[in-house]
Specification:
By secondary structure, the protein is an all-alpha fold. It is built from 4 helices and no strands.
Amino acid sequence: ASVRAVRMAHARRLAAMQSPIPGVQYGLLSVLALFAALPPFLEPSGGSSTLSQVLYGLLVAVLVLVLAVVLDVANPRRPGAYSMDREMSIILIALQDTLTAIEADEDEQRSTFEFG
């Protein structure tokens, strides 16, 4: 890995942290609003039908999905879609390679200086 790879990984990490909320999240919120608004119109008598139970189950499922996405965004060190671990490992490997190259170059200069 080179300095260019480190810079590219750093740029991807910064872009991921600064990106606006993805369209999928807006879609999830729209579905959530739809599921929250529909049951009263489908069952005005107050009785519980199978359809309203299914809609309520979908509402809860969407709420759990939204919570999972929010937790994923809130903690980028946790494995998930917004994780920065891949970029961090690229940066770490590149830094280790650079340090190894610098140490090898210094050892070569010392041996040339001592024997030259």
